[in-house]
Design a protein that fits this description.
Blueprint: E1 8-12, H1 17-28, E2 32-37, H2 40-50, E3 56-60, H3 66-80, E4 83-88, H4 103-113, H5 115-131, E5 135-140, H6 152-171, E6 177-183, H7 191-198, H8 208-226, H9 231-243, E7 248-250, H10 256-269
Helix pairs in contact: 1-9, 3-5, 4-6, 7-8
Length: 273
């Protein structure tokens, strides 16, 4: 797809971080924006900013809520027409050591990082196909969806999003719907702190010393992210990826060695011909 002008883009997590960067880039390219986020104040700020460039509608949405997804989709179509640019972007940096994982934490991380994408696909894709207008889907995964470099919970969801996107890319070609999977490295967002404030409470009570260590770890993780790519640069990368119908969109080359190591290990494990 070379021209996104006049199309309606629906972006989850669209008022913060990478989602906001995507919204800015597509607004400048002439797309109409339907932004969904759990953060009402951020939605208001995004609408004030981007409403000066293009038509913007905002929706408070928990991407785990399928009934709410359906209502949002109906509202968007009635106001802005069919969605033909779909960005399943909302995510959390959920994770914990294996011994500290709980069902609540699994449900939180998988519910947002994987089922949030599934819910977006299931809500909008049939409508996109029926409209006959083609379009493009971008699913936000992570570099951690290409090789296991972080926690089991986070990696599980992100690997699934990558596989889903690869399969959809093959199956949707007849409908003229492109698919990209965004696999960012470090990006300057506040996702670590936002996740910490939204995640289920730990089942074990932490001592003051342990609480201090957690606080320090969150600060280090955030500082690491802030040294990464800027959200507006990532938004431009996504716009270019959609225009060029790229299956994979990367923000840097930090996963090059882990991907090579994983690929080599898989190939080496195959039986001799």
């Amino acid at each position: 797809m070379t021209d996104v002008k006049g199309r309606t883009a629906f972006i989850t997590g669209g008022a913060n971080g990478i989602g906001l960067g995507i919204a800015r880039s597509f607004a400048r390219a002439g797309a109409k924006l339907a932004l969904a986020d759990i953060d009402v104040a951020a939605l208001a700020r995004a609408k004030d900013e981007l409403g000066q460039i293009t038509q913007v509608e905002t929706y408070q949405l928990d991407v785990r809520d399928r009934d709410a997804f359906a209502k949002v989709a109906e509202s968007i179509e009635s106001v802005m027409g069919p969605v033909t640019l779909l960005f399943n972007n909302a995510g959390v940096a959920a994770g914990a050591p294996p011994a500290a994982l709980t069902f609540d934490l699994w449900d939180f991380g998988i519910g947002i990082n994987l089922y949030g994408v599934i819910n977006g696909i299931q809500t909008f894709l049939p409508k996109m196909i029926a409209s006959g207008q083609g379009g493009h889907i971008v699913n936000t995964a992570s570099g951690a969806g290409l090789a296991a470099v972080t926690t089991t919970l986070y990696t599980t969801a992100k690997f699934a999003v990558v596989g889903m996107s690869e399969s959809l890319n093959n199956e949707l070609k007849p409908a003229n719907i492109g698919v990209s999977v965004l696999c960012p490295g470090t990006v300057a967002t506040d996702i670590v702190n936002r996740t910490a404030s939204a995640a289920p409470a730990s089942e074990r009570k932490l001592t003051e010393t342990q609480q201090a260590k957690v606080k320090e770890a969150l600060a280090r993780a955030t500082a690491n992210l802030m040294a990464g790519a800027k959200i507006d640069d990532v938004g431009d990368m996504v716009l270019k990826g959609v225009q060029e119908n790229s299956l994979y969109i990367h923000t840097d080359r930090m996963m090059e060695i882990p991907i090579k190591m994983r690929s080599r290990a898989i190939l080496d494990s195959l039986p001799n011909a």
